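Input sequence (258 aa), recorded before submission:
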Amino acid sequence: MTVQLILKDGVATVTINRPDRMNAVDQETAEQLESIWQKIEADTSVRCVVLTGAGERAFSAGADLKSESDASGLEYWASVNPNGFGGIASRQTLNVPIIGKINGFALGGGMEMVLGCDIVIATDDARFGLPEAKVGRLPMAGGMTMLQRMIPEKIAAGLMMTGRMMSASEAKHYGLVNAVVPRADLDAEVATWVKDIVSCAPLSLASIKRTIRDTAHLSIEAASSINLPSTLRALLSEDSEEGVTAFREKRAPVWRGK
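Predicted structure, token format:
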């Protein structure tokens, strides 16, 4: 298996395990990732996802251009996953928080997967980039449509039109990264974010994620007028009552996800 899935205490850790290829994604790896996302979506016990790459060199270098299964031209365009690179860059059906644990280079499709994460924690030596134009390709599995929505247009254009890399500190400055830490502190930093996430009501988190995703393109007035099913479900849930009761009783809430 080129992707590992570990489920423990409501946390799904997904690790791309091709360190000898900088965790580049070939067809087999892409299929495994898609299968894993579907499995996580069907598992109501999952409260948080951590996505990372094996080894210390790279989170993911994107598409494996050395793979014999790598497509090109119109075949490449036709083979793009509608959920974005790695099945996660622009996925609309996974409603649990995703933490990107970036332990090195995140390039091409690797960066597109970063764009699909809700929270991103990176080592201080991590590097981000969309170098597709350098090899006659396009960052079309999420990059071209998402990056300029997350950072200033000129910065996004500069990255994509030159293939240059952005440092972790620059990425944090522009809001692509939540925290930058020394490599030795990466596990501990991610663990604190996971702990905070799982302490929150799962239906509230699902509604927040859904609202961010579905209303980012709308004005505040238009977004405020939308009653998403996930919002109503969270407000009318047993957990909504439990949260207030636990606060009044000065105890930790017991979330049931219903």
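Checked by second reader. The mean pLDDT is 89.
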